[in-house]
Amino acid sequence: MKTSWRILRRNPRALLGFVILLGFGLMATIGPYLIKLDEDQNFAERFQAPSLSHLMGTDYVGRDVFAQIIYGSRDVLIVAVLAAILTILIGVFIGAISGLAGGPLDTTLMMLVNVILTVPSFPLMLIIASMFKVTNPISYALLLAIWSWGGLARAVRSQILSLKKREFIEAARVLGLPAGHIIFRQLLPNITPYLAINFISIMRHAITASVGIMMLGLVPYSSSNWGMMLNLAVFQSGAVYTPSAIFYLLAPITAICLFQLGGIFFAHGLDELMNPRLRS
Amino acid sequence: MRKTRFGSLLMVGLLVLSLLATACSKTPETTPKDSSTTPNASAPKEPAIFNATGNWNVPPAYHGNYFATGGSSNPWWYISEPLFVYQPVDGSISPRLGTDWKEEGNKVTVTLRSGVTWSDGTPFTAKDVVANFYMLKLLNRGIWRYLASVEAANDTTVVFNFTVMTPLAKALVNSDPIFAGAKEYGKWADQVPANMTNTEKLNAIRTDLGNYKPEKPVGMGPFVIKTVTASEMILEKNPKHYAADKVAFDQVRLARANSNETIWAMNLAGELDVNHAAASKDLVDQYLKRQTKMKMAAPSDLSDFGLIFNTRKYPFSEQKFRQALAFVLDRKKIREVTNYFGADVTDYSHGIMKSYAGEWLSADVLKTFTNYTTDLKKAEALLTELGMKKNEKGEWLGKDGKPFAFEVTFPGGWGTNAESVASQLKAFGLPTKARAIEDSLYGSTLQAGNYDMATEFGNLWWGNPHPYTGYRRYYDTVSDGFVAKATGFPNVVKGPDGKDIDLMATTTDLGKTADKAAQKKLIEKLAWVTNEYLPLLTLTEKNIVIFYQDGLRVTGWPDAKDPIWQLAGGSTDKLYTTLIINGTLKPVSK
Predict the structure, then answer these.
(1) Cα A14 off chain centre by
(2) Domain boundary among B191, B210, B229
(3) Using omega within 30 degrees of 0 as the cis cutoff, is the peptide bond preceding B315 cis?
C-alpha cells in the first residue's frame, strides 16, 4: 500500500487522475446527501446561465444541471464500473483460456467470440426488452457487458499467445511451476496495463450505451444519466443550436471527458505500479 | 533515416499549409440570394425551385409501387391528385380531378375533369378511379367499411355505392390522392371485386403485387420525379398537368428529413422554403432571429396527446383514482414543456378534439361533465374516499397500506411528456418513474397490459376530422378500438341516466348516421362516458408547426391564421401542393 502511494505521489499525472476519480467517487457517494435533486419542471427557468442558485445553470425544463450531474455520477460509477469489471472478467477468462489451451478449445472459443462480435445486438436486445425488466445495477451492467467482451477476449488471447512463448514463461514451465502461478503471477501482470486502458474505454462506452438500454425500456428512464443528458441536449431540446443552452450541453460532455481523463491518467500510474521496469 | 524524417516533416508542413489555406479561404454563401438580386439578362434563366422536405426509402430499396415496401413513402401529393380537396374546418370540398360531387341516398356520383393524362401519356378516366379504390381495399383503407362498390358509369363519371351513408364520406373518398391507375395496377385491381371477403385470395394478390417494383411512380400530379438519392429528391414540373399554367415552379427539391437535427440545421441556414420538423421554443426563436423572412403557422394536427390508464390493474381500475390523477396533473405545464406550440386542454377529457368540441358539445351539455382543472384538494378527497392515506414521507399508500410505485411508459422520443407527468405525480406523493419502450414494441406492450400509465395519441383524426374517427379509436374494437384494447376498458358501462351503454354499438351507430342532430345525441353519450370514466386523459392538442420563408425564394403564403393551413393536418404536402396548383405560391421574381 505504502509502495503504491509512493509510486502514485511521484507520478503527477497519475496523482491527478486519482484525485479526479476520487472526486467522482465522493460526488457519487456523498453528493446526493448534500444536494437535493428537484425534478419539478419550470419552463420559465429553462437554459439559465450558471449562478449561485444553479452552479451549472438549468436544463430545458428549468431543472438544476449541477444536481443532475451529481445524481448522474451514481449511475456512471455503479453501472459503468460494474459493466467494465464484468467485461474484463469475461474477456480475460475466455481470452486467457483460449490462448493458453490452444487446439480445438481455442477454435471453439474463438468461434463463440466471432458470433458475439458479428451478431447484431439490437434485435437481441429487443427480444430481451420484451421479456425482461432490469431491476438492479448488476443485471444492468451484465446486459452492457454481455455484448462488449468479444473484442477484449480476442486481444487477450493474442497477448497470451505472444507471452507464452517468451523465455520467462518457458523458464517457469521448465521449473515446473503450477499453471495457476504462471497465469496469475507471470502472465496477468504483463497484460494488466492493457486491461486498465480497456477498463476505461469500456466505462465510457457503458455511459453512452446505457442510453440505448434506457430507450429500449430495459431500465427506467433517467434524465440525470450523463448519456441521457447529452442525448436530450442534442436530439430533443435542440441545445446544440441554442446559445443560451451551452452550459446544459457542456455539463455532461465535461463530466464524461473529465471522468475519462481521470481514468486515463490513473491508468498511467497503474502501468508503473504493475510494471517495475517503468519505475524510475 | 534523415530522408524519412525530412519526408515526414514535408508532409506535416503541407498538411498545415492546406489547413491554413482552407481556414483562410472565403466561406461560400450559405444563404441563397434573395429577391434583391440584380437580374442579368444574358444569363440563362434559373429554374424556379420549391425547397421542402420528404422522407423516402433510399435507393436501391426505393421504387414506385405504393403497395410494396420501399415505395409507399413517395411524395404522392406532388405527383398525384385527389378527386377533391377536403377542408376539415367546414367540411367543404374543392375540385381537383373531380369537378362535381352529387349525393343521392347511399350513392355518390363524381364527375371527372376531362383532358387529364397520366405522366406516361395515358388518358385519365373513371376506370383509373375504380382501379385505385379497389387497390385501397388491399391496404384495408377505412372507406371500405362503408363502401359496397365503385363503378365507372362512363369515362368521366364514377359512382360510389355506400352500404351506409357515413358522415365521413367526403373525407374518406378524398383522403388519398389517386395513385394506382388501371393501366399500371388493373391486373391486380380487377381481381379484388370478386374476392372482397376472401382474405386468403386478397393476401395472395398483395403478395404478387409486392413483387412489382417500377423504377418510379406514374402520376398525373403537378410534378414528376426526376432523380432520387439518399439525401435529395428532385421533382420536375409536369407540363401535361391540367393546371400547368398556374404552377409557377419548375422544380421541387425535397431534402430527406430522416432526423430533426438535419432539418434544424437546414432551417437555420435558410435552405428550406417550408418544413414542419418539430422544434423547441428556443430553437424556433433562433430560426426567427437568424432567418428574418421566416414565419410560422400552427394549425391543428387533428390529433391530441393523452395519458392512458391500464384499467386492468389496481388502482387504475378505480374510476375515482383515474379522476384523482386528472385533478393532480397541471396539463398547461405539461403542454408548455412538451408541446409548446400545441393547444391547452385543461378542463375536460371527452374524446373530441378541443378545437372542434364547440361544434358538437354545447355549454349546457358540458355542465353535466366533470371539469378536471387542476385541483389537488379534490384529488386528495377522491383518494381518501378510496381508503388511501399518506405516510410520514407524504407518499400515498394503497388500501392495503403499501406504498405505490408507478411507471409512465412512453415510446422513443416522448420522454419529456412522460417525465413531466411522472414528476408531477411524484410531487403529489405518488412515486412515479418514466420508462421508455422501443417503438416497434410499444403497441403490443400496451395491448398486453404490461404497463401502469402510458403516453399515447388520443385522437388521430388525420384525414377524417369527425368525433366518430376518435370514438372508433377509443371503442370500436372490431375496426380499431386501440384505446379500449390497450386500457382493458369494458365495452358496457352505465351512462348519465344510469342505463347501460354499449360503447361499440353506439360508436358503430354514429358511423352510420348522416343526420347531424342524431349524431350529436350519440356523441354526447360517448363524450360523457369518456370524460367521467377516463380511460384516457387528454393532455394537449397537437398543432403542426409549419415554418415557411416568405419572400426569400417563394412568395404568396397565406396569412398564418387563414383556415387553408388546416389542410396540413395529416399531410402537409396536401397543403403545399394545393397552394402551388391554385397559383397562390410563386417564386420571388428576380
Answers:
(1) 18
(2) B210
(3) yes
Number of domains in chain A: 1
CATH code (residue B342): 3.10.105.10
The number of folded domains in chain B is: 3
- Is the pLDDT at B415 greater than 90? The verdict is no
Whether A236 contacts chain B with CB within 8 A: yes
Residue B38 belongs to a domain: no
The whole-angstrom distance between B323's CA and the closest CA on chain A is 22
- In this prediction, residues A234-241 reach a mean pLDDT of 86
Inform me whether the C-beta atom of residue A240 falls under 8 Å from chain B C-beta atoms: yes
Residues 51-80 of A with CB under 8 A from B: 60-61
Question: What percentage of residues in chain B have a pLDDT greater than 90?
Answer: 81
Residue A256 in grid coordinates: 464524461
The C-alpha of A240 sits at a distance from chain B's nearest C-alpha, in angstroms, of: 9
Pairing of strands B49-54, B157-162: unpaired
Residue B568 scores a pLDDT above 60: yes
Interface test with B, best of A59, A231, A241, A247 (most B CBs within 10 A): A241
Q: Which residues of B touch A43 (CB under 8 A)?
A: 333, 336-337, 340
Do the chains contact at B283 and A238, CB–CB below 8 Å?
Answer: yes
Is the CB of residue A77 less than 8 Å from the CB of residue A25? Answer: yes
Across the interface, do A220 and B435 touch by the CB < 8 Å criterion? yes
Mean pLDDT in residue range A121-126:
76
pLDDT of A280 higher than 70: no
Inter-chain touch A223–B419, beta carbons under 8 Å: yes
Task: Give DSSP secondary structure letters for B132-199.
Answer: HHHHHHHTT-GGGGTEEEEEEEETTEEEEEESS--TTHHHHHTSS-B---HHHHHHHHTTSGGGTT-H
Q: How confident is the model at residue A193 (pLDDT cuts 50, 70, 90)?
A: confident
Q: Which of B282, B406, B451, B452 to mutate to test the interface with A (most CBs of A within 10 A)?
A: B282
The Cα B549–Cα B552 span in angstroms is: 6
Count how many pairs of residues, chain A against chain B, have C-beta atoms within 8 Å.
95
- Report ipTM for this prediction: 0.79
The answer to whether residue B440 neighbours chain A at the CB level (below 8 Å) is yes
Task: Flag whether A50 is in a domain.
Answer: no
Residues in A closer than 8 angstroms to B540, CB to CB, are none
Is the same domain home to B446 and B381? yes
Please, which residues bridge with residue A58 across strands? Answer: A64
**pLDDT of amino acid B27:** 40
pTM: 0.83
Report the C-alpha gap between B314 and B29 in whole angstroms: 62
CA atoms within 13 A on the CB side of B115: 6
Structural domain harbouring A132: 11-33+58-279
Nearest CB to B419: which of A126, A215, A221?
Answer: A221
Which is it for strands B396-397 and B294-297: parallel, antiparallel or unpaired? unpaired
The pLDDT of A48-70, averaged and rounded, is 95
Check B279 against A238: CB less than 8 A apart: yes
B17: pLDDT strictly greater than 80: no
CATH of the domain at B98: 3.90.76.10
Which among A41, A47, A216 has the least Cβ separation from residue B420? A41
Instruction: For residue B4, tell me if it sits in a domain.
Output: no
Which range of A27-31, A83-87, A228-232, B373-377 scores highest in mean pLDDT? It is: B373-377
CB atoms within 10 A of CB B367: 8
Mean pLDDT confidence for A27-34: 93
